[in-house]
Amino acid sequence: MSIHSTKQEVARRRTFAIISHPDAGKTTLTEKILLFAGAIQIAGSVKARKASRHAASDWMEIEKQRGISVASSVMQMEYQDCVINLLDTPGHQDFSEDTYRVLTAVDAALMVIDAANGVEPQTIRLLEVCRARNTPIITFINKLDREVKPPLDLIQEVESHLRMDVVPFSWPIGMGKQFAGVFDVQLDRMRLFQSGRDRRPEQEDQTIEGLNNPELEQKFGQAFLQAREEIELLQAASPAFDHEAFLAGRQTPVFFGSAINNFGVQEVLEALVKYAPAPGPRQALERTVNPDEGKFTGVVFKVQANMDPAHRDRVAFVRVSSGQFNRGMRLKVSRNQKEIRPNNVVSFLSQRRELVEEAFAGDVIGIPNHGILHLGDVLTEGEVLHFTGLPFFAPELFQAVEVKDPLRTKQLRTGLTQLGEEGAIQVFRPVAAGATLLLGAVGQLQFEVVIHRLKTEYGVEARLMPARFTLARWVTADDPKVLAKFLDANAAQIAYDVVEAPAYLAGSPAQLRVVQDRYPDVQFHTMREHG
Ligand code: G4P
C-alpha cells in the first residue's frame, strides 16, 4: 500500500511522451532517461527492442515479439520522489495515428530535434496535436557533438514552427569536434562536455562558474566569445522563463546536448520533474473529473494485439484519470454499461510487465481482454462518463479489399471490424450496393500489416485493389435534415466507419471543393473525435 494520500500520489506523477522525427534520437534519449532514473543499469536494452522503421518484413518479425513491444510502450520509473510515466510513440511514420492518440494520454511532451536537420516534417504534425491541446513542451536539441546548424538558426526554427516563445536554459559552446559543453543560463555556469559514457555517471559534470569568468575565454577562445555574444543577445531579446506560460503551451524551455554521450540528459529529466505538470482535471461531457477524487475513472487510448495471435487477445492501455485502481475491482464500460472485473491487469514498471497493485491518475494500466474494450472507452466504478478528444484522422490512402475465397466473407468482416476497433486501420463501408469494403490508412505499411494479420489471426486471404477515392471527410450538419438530404443525394460517395460515422469520399481535392461549395451547411472534417 502507498504511504501517500491520493492527492500526494497524483502530485508526484509526471506523464509524458517523446516526440521527434525518425532518427533524431528518441530511442537514445529514452534509454538515457531510464539510465539516469536508475531504471536500467547499462544502456542498450531499449535500443535492442527498437522496432524497424524501414520494411514491412522487419515489422512482421518484430510483431512476433509483440509481448516485448507491449512491455516497452509504457515505462514507469521513480526519480527524485516523482513517479515518471514515459509513453512510447511508434517510430514508424506509418503508425503516426497511434502516436496522435498516445499524445492525448500525456500531460507534457519532450521534443527531440536533430541539430543537423532542425525541425523536420513529422515533428511538425506531432506538434500540431500538442498545440491543439496546449500540451506543455520541453525541447531538447540533440547531436551537438556533430557539425550542426548554428544554434541561433535552430532557435528561430523552433520558434516559428511552434509558434511559442523559446527560452534557452542552456547554450552550446562550439559544436562537432570542437563541442566544449553548454552554458547553463539559469545557473550561470558552464558544464564541460565529456564524451561516450553509457553508464550512469558516478561523478557530477565538471563546471566553471560565471559567464564573465576569464577562465572560459582562456580555455575555449573564439567558440566561447561567440556563445557569450549569443547568450547576451538572447537574454536581451527573449522573455524570462514563466512557468504559467510554459504550462499553457506558450513557452518552451530549450536544452542543448548529446543524448548518445549522456550530455544534457539529466537537465532535461530535472526540468520534467520540476516544471512538467502533475495530472490535471479532465473534461467529460457530463462533468469535470478531478484527478484526486475518490472514484476511479480511466480512458482507453490505445489497443494493441497481444502475444498470442491465435487467441486474439488484446491489451487495452488505460490512462487513469482519477481515483485509485486496485486489482480485482469491478469496472463499468460507459459505452455499453458492461461490467468487467480485470484481474491480471499489468503495469509497466521499468519495462517489466508486472501485475499492478494500485495505480493513480497519470499512470497507465494494461488490461488484457478479448475485444470487449475499444479505443476511447471510458471505465468507471459505475458512473456513465464520456471523454472527448481521442482523435481519428482522415486517411490519405485508400484500398478496396476483397476476400479470395467468398466463403470467408464473414471472417473478413469480423477481422476488419476488430482491426478497425483496434485502430490498426480505418474501415469504411460504402453505401453503394455491391461495393467492397474500403480500407483507409495514413501510411502504406498499415495495409501490409492488416493483410498479414488477416491471414495469421483470422485465416483470411485478402487482396487489395485500387480504390477510386483519394480522400475522406467526416460530415456533420447542425440540422439533421440537411445532413440526411446530403447523404441521400450523394449516396455513391458516402461510406460509414466502424462507429457508423458517415464520411464523404472524393476522388480529388477539386471534387471535394465542388461539393463543399454546393453544400455550405454541411461541415467536412479531417479529424473525428471519439466521444
Ligand atoms: P530515433 O529513435 O529518434 O529514430 O533515433 P535513435 O535514438 O535511434 O538515433 C538515431 C541515430 O542517431 C542513431 O545512430 C544514434 O546512435 C544517433 N544518435 C543519437 N543521439 C546522438 C548524439 O547525441 N550524437 C550523435 N552523433 N549521434 C546520436 P544509428 O547509426 O542509426 O544507430 P547506431 O548504429 O548508433 O545504433
TrEMBL record:
Localisation: Cytoplasm
Keywords recorded for this protein, A-Z: Cytoplasm, GTP-binding, Nucleotide-binding, Protein biosynthesis
Chain residues that bind GTP: 20-27, 88-92, 142-145
Key word RNA-binding present: no
The keyword GTP-binding is assigned to this record: yes
SUPFAM superfamilies in alphabetical order: EF-G C-terminal domain-like, P-loop containing nucleoside triphosphate hydrolases, Translation proteins
Main subcellular location: cytoplasm
Positions of the Tr-type G domain: 11-282
UniProt family annotation: Belongs to the TRAFAC class translation factor GTPase superfamily. Classic translation factor GTPase family. PrfC subfamily.
PANTHER family in UniProt: PEPTIDE CHAIN RELEASE FACTOR RF3
Function: Increases the formation of ribosomal termination complexes and stimulates activities of RF-1 and RF-2. It binds guanine nucleotides and has strong preference for UGA stop codons. It may interact directly with the ribosome. The stimulation of RF-1 and RF-2 is significantly reduced by GTP and GDP, but not by GMP.
Entry protein name: Peptide chain release factor 3
